[in-house]
Specification:
The structure is a homodimer. Chain A is of the alpha+beta class. Helix content of chain A is about 35%, strand content about 25%. In chain A, the strands form 2 sheets. In chain A, strands 7-9-6-10-8-11-12 form a 7-stranded mixed β-sheet, with helices on both faces. A 5-stranded mixed β-sheet of chain A has the order 1-2-5-3-4.
Chain lengths: ~325, ~325
């Protein structure tokens, strides 16, 4: 079974959430608490699967662990508040590596005003960090994946494919330090940003649905469409491909680096994919431009559920090619 | 570095909690949220370290993961509410083992009314489950480890040493099924109970401090004394040693199974160790007797910080011999 099939199987075994709560199936769980709402998520990073110590420092791992959880909370329209972390360490792990992981956690948690409230430690064959995070909605309402309707504009923040390109460069041992473009791509993989501030500004414009792009645009777009039973029509020429991927493609001319493929399937860009009233796209672009973040309209939400397309490509087929922890080697 | 030294090092690097919050150093973090309080904890269980698949079923692992987190929340004087779980699986893990883990999580979460609100999956060399749990205080106040004063009675629920004895029996391949006593000890290791209902009743009597006995009485008693700067005088004859350990000691007569040692150092009994006004000990015993749970007075809290003793044994020395994930093999 692949990761997504296994998650569906587990969710079915656990059963549905009671009325008023959201459990699996969104970026974070939504739980009522004392008249307000708690957002709650977890992400685990395992050495050799989610990071490679050949090119990821301890600081990178710690930073990224916070960022990917914070991104999930932001994608629900909320501010991350507190994290707890469970750390598994091989007995031979150096104290300096652990110190570096903690420094990365501290750096990221300061950046997004998150308290690191507790943790646990055990031994394992590889380093892993499982972090859980709670947060609270910016405004009155949570932004689910569902809830959009035909006619909505589909938009995404920033650029896509950079993290996938950075991973390709790093995993092939390319020295990225000599080129600002390559170093920038590498940083997208090693130290992703969580669009917390950007999500807060967007929420003032009431997007109807939102998700973070963690599995690749094709997969996450499919999730967004699936959650509210709509189709979509996306123009591949509109996809904001990270411009730095051109340099990587030139460098690896022997190989088939297609920047658009990386943007659609690379994953881990942690941009916000959202649906909004078409009349508000301009305001979203202006608001986020002040934060140095682009907003690109990719296309539109359509009524036709059987038509979920990026240009000529069917999303269902594209997502099968996407990132899947349990199947990719 | 051992586990506790590493945790202290990490906590120092993260820095102190802001006023009004408790981070590390107690059974769970205490966080203000919307005029109320969230309790927040995490525990990770790793195959080969925290459980052995030779004698722990998937259901055992899932059940215990919920129980040990719920125990931490209960020991703060609160009800566990919602969990998220990060699961790491070797690619060859059978679907039936994963199903069993989930069934164990579901069984335990139903028992203590906990919603399993989300999760994540990755690959690893061994099975591990990192669970985080949030809860809310039963009453107005949280019960910290600190806050007790000289003259308080020191009490513990249930019996001690059973989980350590069960682990010894199982790890030596003893067939426990033929003896109710041995099977009972094994169950203490495999399917620990969280004293959630008992904690709720105790909290009506306002214990001044509480901790769950996860590392062994000696270690957890030391933590409780250290947190509020007091000494203690505990009578070893008063320690409620699990009576079923006698049968195990007989069986392993070639070895040195000392039931009292297991009670002091075995760990994972997940009983509640608490301090209470001496006049209320009888009421605590009556209240918990209705739940089928014994309450034993172990001794008293004293003013003399330099005297933390169980009979002739100094707690500081005893705790050095206690359970430590990173040093025990």
């Amino acid at each position: 079974l692949g990761e997504s099939a296994l998650i569906e199987r587990i969710a079915a075994r656990i059963g549905p959430a009671p009325r008023g709560e959201t459990w699996s199936g969104d970026d974070a769980a939504v739980l009522p608490f004392s008249g307000r709402t708690i957002l709650y998520t977890t992400d685990v990073m395992v050495e050799g699967v989610d990071f490679d110590r050949a090119y990821c420092s301890g600081t990178d791992v710690g930073f990224k662990s916070v960022a990917i959880n914070a991104s999930d909370i932001a994608a629900m329209g909320g501010a991350p508040r507190h994290a707890v972390a469970a750390l598994s360490l091989p007995p031979e792990t150096s104290v300096s590596f652990v110190d570096a992981m903690v420094d990365g956690v501290v750096e990221a948690s300061k950046r997004w005003s998150i308290g690191v409230a507790g943790g646990d430690i055990s031994r394992a064959h590889e380093v892993s960090m499982a972090m859980a995070m709670i947060g609270a909605p910016f405004g009155d309402a949570v932004v689910h994946r569902s809830g959009a309707k035909a006619g909505d504009a589909l938009c995404v923040t920033g650029h896509l494919g950079g993290a996938g390109g950075g991973l390709k460069a790093l995993s092939r041992g390319i020295d990225v330090t000599g080129s600002a473009a390559l170093a920038g791509l590498a940083a997208r993989h090693l130290r992703p940003s969580a669009r917390v501030v950007e999500a807060k500004r967007l929420c003032e414009l009431h997007p109807t649905a939102m998700i973070d792009v963690s599995d690749g645009l094709a997969v996450d777009l499919w999730h967004l469409m699936d959650a509210s039973g709509t189709g979509c029509d996306v123009d591949p020429a509109a996809v904001p491909v990270d411009p730095r991927l051109a340099e990587l493609a030139d460098l690896l001319s022997d190989d088939t680096i297609d920047p658009l493929d990386l943007a659609l399937l690379g994953g881990e860009d942690f941009e916000l994919l959202f649906r909004i009233d078409p009349d508000k796209v301009g305001r979203a672009q202006t608001a986020l431009a002040e934060l140095g973040c682009a907003v690109t309209r990719l296309g539109s939400v359509t009524e036709n559920v059987s038509e979920r397309r990026i240009g000529d490509h069917d999303l269902e087929e594209l997502k099968e090619a996407g990132w899947d922890h349990l199947r990719t080697g």
